[in-house]
Design a protein that fits this description.
Blueprint: H1 2-30, H2 35-63, H3 66-85, H4 89-114, H5 123-152, H6 154-166, H7 169-174, H8 194-198, H9 201-230, H10 235-254, H11 256-262, H12 265-282, H13 289-317, H14 323-352, H15 355-377
Length: 378
């Protein structure tokens, strides 16, 4: 039952975190932020994870996951309450990095312990269950955020999301033994460094590909609301479009185990990059909400395949006593792209509009797929 409890807590925590992206970006626009301001907000979400994820992974490998999971979800809840009480741009920019910190603590711990639940042959199933939970939350977060904004306002939407983040505190407090340790407790060996992990070629490439996929998800989460707002769509319509993306990630992950049995993970990962690239190319040509929902579904198929595959590959390729550290490296790489790419694309969006953001991201994913495919063949 542990993996299902972990997946349920992850679903609630990610519902709050994912919904916050929609509310924070639309609230920032309502408060006068331009596309660069929204890009800055997206970058601030990634600041602390980029700086601290590797260290957090090392600590979690030694002390276990329960404490970081508890702290992470509590931070998310408190940082959603802050802009709910004080809706100012400065407060949004202050809360965003702390939201990223809270989710980083929770996610690094969860990614490490998921592979440790049950038997080795259960690992792919465990990550599949976790990914389905994240897909459900990816559907619920934007949907709750969009309808709450339209019917209750931005501040009450943040209060509802904060309530979702508070629920996982109960099982973490009352059922501590349900959360296993990620690895056996070990003393950190002298001479170990992140460079040891990066020297493994296929692991290094997987970190980079994971960063491309994660940045694409991040840009979509922040810039689809901006694009929809510019197209005159309501918050509910934007939430439905984002929920369609999440529905696709849920659908593809139901079939992911069977897909992996039919072919190599790295080949499927490359194909996912190409599908996501094609979807980003299509976005600027449409403003109809139904068309945008269909393209979002296509994008969800690509990105929804790539995320769990990269998590599984990293766990399998990392040394067994450094799995949470490897998860931390993945989070660091992902959030380095989250910090740099939204700022660059925010400047691009302010100068030329949101459409070039989608096209440039499509080219980035396409290049990543080509490079990784050539390296895999070698």
């Amino acid at each position: 039952m542990a993996i299902y409890l972990i997946a349920l807590m992850s679903t609630l925590c990610n519902t709050a975190f994912g919904g916050s992206r929609v509310v924070m970006s639309l609230l920032a626009i309502d408060l006068g932020a331009d596309p660069f301001g929204v890009g800055l907000l997206a970058s601030l979400y990634a600041l602390f994870p980029m700086l601290l994820a590797i260290y957090a992974g090392k600590v979690i490998d030694r002390v276990g996951a329960r404490g970081p999971m508890f702290a992470g979800t509590l931070i998310i809840a408190l940082c959603l309450l802050l802009p709910a009480g004080f809706p100012r741009l400065l407060v949004l920019y202050s809360a965003a990095p702390l939201l990223g910190l809270g989710f980083m603590l929770f996610f690094v711990a969860v990614q490490g312990i998921t592979g440790a639940v049950g038997r080795e042959q259960d690992r792919a199933r465990n990550y599949g269950v976790l990914s389905v939970g994240f897909s459900i939350s990816g559907f619920l977060g934007p949907l709750i955020a969009g309808f709450s904004i339209d019917h209750l306002g931005h501040q009450r939407a943040l209060l509802i999301l904060a309530g979702c983040a508070l629920v996982p505190l109960l099982p973490l407090w009352l059922k501590p033994k349900m959360i296993p340790r990620a690895t056996h407790t070990v003393e950190e060996k002298t001479g170990q460094s992140v460079r040891d992990l990066l020297r493994i070629p296929v692991l290094r490439r997987t970190f980079i590909v994971s960063g491309f996929i994660s940045a694409a998800w991040d840009l979509y989460s922040f810039y689809m609301p901006v694009y929809g707002h510019q197209a005159g769509l309501s918050a509910s319509a934007i939430g439905m479009i984002l929920a369609t993306f999440a529905a696709a990630t849920f659908t593809i992950r139901l079939f992911l185990s069977a897909m992996v049995r039919q072919g190599a993970e790295m080949r499927i990962l490359n194909q996912a990059l190409y599908v996501a690239s094609a979807a980003f190319f299509l976005f600027p040509f449409f403003q109809n909400p139904w068309a945008l929902a269909a393209i979002s579904f296509l994008l969800g198929l690509g990105i929804g395949t790539g995320q769990p595959l990269s998590m599984t590959l990293i766990y399998n390729l990392a040394p067994k006593d450094r799995t949470s550290e490897a998860a931390g490296v993945r989070v660091t790489v992902n959030h380095f792209t989250h910090v740099t790419i939204p700022l660059a694309f925010g400047a691009l969006g302010s100068a030329f509009g949101v459409a070039p953001v989608f096209v440039t991201n499509a080219l980035m994913l396409l290049a990543g797929g080509i490079v990784n495919q050539r390296a895999t063949r070698r």
